[in-house]
Predict the structure.
Amino acid sequence: EKVKRGTGNTDTKKENEKVKKDEPLHEKEAKEDSKTKTPEKQMPSGPTKPSEGPAKAEEEAAPSIFDEPLERVKNNDPEMTEVNVNNSDCITNEILVRFTEALEFNTVVKVFALANTRADDHVAFAIAIMLKANKTITSLNLDSNHITGKGILAIFRALLQNNTLTELRFHNQRHICGGKTEMEIAKLLKENTTLLKLGYHFELA
């Protein structure tokens, strides 16, 4: 009623000014939100589109290269005494895990070498499970990978149930083990009676 009569114009003006002041704030926030949201959406979709082709081609090519050796390991081929995939660019963690699972009940392979294959903790945990069952592998090379202290400790704990592995190499990982992990490794090594060679530079004296 006041607005209709023309009285209290000052109040309405103030209210209008407040609303106007509030509006740009909301607009700004909305714009900022949209700005922050859009790059997030664009970031993943932008670069992946062009690289999808070669990445897919690599993924398709990789299994075909490793299909034959995988089958030979699974079938316990007597001539397949070594699995060496060192420095393989196209090998994935999934394929490494498949190799590890195939080795679980293999009785021929003595050497498993996967240095510089970007293997991570998933592979390390799979190796730990494999070492508990496998009674043939004597040498394991995990140098220059992405395994953390957790993965390495899992392998050492598995060695408590393994009496055949004599050589273990896991130097130059992307993640530093740290003092706590090294202390734990030292404790587990005290209980190990089969390892003869250990390829790792301890930072902790």
Remarks:
- The first helix runs from residue 2 to 5.
